[in-house]
Amino acid sequence: MHQKTIKQLSSELTLKKISSVELTKEFLKRVRLYDSKINSFITIDEERALAEAKEADVLIKKGANTFLTGIPIAHKDIFCTKGIKTSCGSKMLDNFISPYDATIVKRLKEAGAVCIGKTNMDEFAMGSSNETSFYGPVHNPWNIENVPGGSSGGSAAAIAARLVCGATGSDTGGSIRQPAAFCGVTGIKPTYGRVSRYGMIAFASSLDQGGTLTQTVEDSALMLETISGFDKKDSTSLMAPVPNFSKEINTSWDKIRIGIPNNFFDSGLDSESSNLVMEAIKIIEKLGAKIINLDLKHIDLSVPSYYVVAPAEASSNLSRFDGVRYGYREKNTQNLNELYKLSRSKGFGDEVKRRIIIGTYVLSAGYYDAYYLQAQKVRKLISQSFVNAFKEVDIIIGPTTPTPAFKIGQKMDDPIQMYLNDIYTIGANLAGLPALSIPCGFSSGLPIGMQLIGPYLKEDLILKIGHHFQKETNWHTHLPAEFL
Ligand code: GLN
Description:
CATH superfamily of the largest domain: Amidase signature (AS) domain
CATH architecture of the largest domain: Alpha-Beta Complex
Largest sheet: 11 strands, mixed
Bound molecules: glutamine
Structural class: alpha/beta
CATH class of the largest domain: Alpha Beta
Shape: globular
Strand content: 5-15%
Order of helices and strands: HHEHEHEHEHEEHHEHEHHHHEHHEEH
């Protein structure tokens, strides 16, 4: 059962070959059996999952089901879930039970998806390895000594180990695509504004975007069409119509121009990853695409500009965690200042504090022009180079990450090395573009991801090309040996 995709399981549910309660029990059994090896969940709610599965079975009986009705999924613990702990991977919110559902959660619930629990993540989504979580690191199912990537590492690992069929994630600088690549699964970050941010705990609001992690592109299309669309509760949500992605991906194409950025295949890219991505591009070329080499100007400045803009927004967003309204509160303090200071000192971990300090510094009077304003100008230049590139090509393809998953502990003492992991993914966030990562091979037993970046609102195009690629290859069907 667990080897099957959402699409396949959905048809078995509709044909009543299996019930959602049976399916949910099967996945819960796997979670019990395997999650202790990888630590992909922060909260597992069996009772609630079975109650939702029962409701789903009623809908299926009535013929009122969608493709997602009765399908076991999980939410990254950054999404508010009514009545269940929403920790954001932090001690600060270890005691927080959300009084409402995020829009993503609400839409998936309305579609009848069954939520098994909340997945582990880097604290406040700051990290590329899942090692900053208050709940301990997540282990990569392909080699449990390695990281799963981050910050949506719990969601990616849970899909790779087939503990759920689909999961939500959030991506501020690569947090869906990078763990998808490290764990050999499919991950999509939609266009900024395509999916509502309401109820998704804010990290850097101008970059954050919710999306999905699944086994296949087809399953991503099914989840994405469910969660996308305007939401009046998010002022940056786009009013654009949502295509029927799962239908669109099956249409054929006529002459697609694929841009290969020379600066994505630089000396920082591991040579085996480079070869695998190049071979994958050749497969797409054979399917009917023209390859065009291009230079994405200023893209080398994406990491430095991101590490000014993102911490600046984070320092502002995280000021709400002051020990007063909700979250961790230090007891026995003498005055208000001490309450703030001790609650924040003890509630936040080191990486979050580093970002708050950087962010506060770059926004302070005297430094604002030198750092923050400068970074915003660079951001604009990077966006413009994507706009220019899309005058010549339809989509851009390159690697998702410079290397396969590294060892747990390997980069924790070297933040710069850790930050450089997102060198190929951050550009799409700075420019607000949709981007997809799909598996395209293995290097020494570890998965490698290929990234497809599209113009604004062209999720349908990147999903279509990704889907046709998955019809030609089977990288997305492999399962790690210990989780068969
Ligand atoms: N790794 C990047 C960071 O730590 C991106 C994280 C994300 O996309 N949430 O900021």
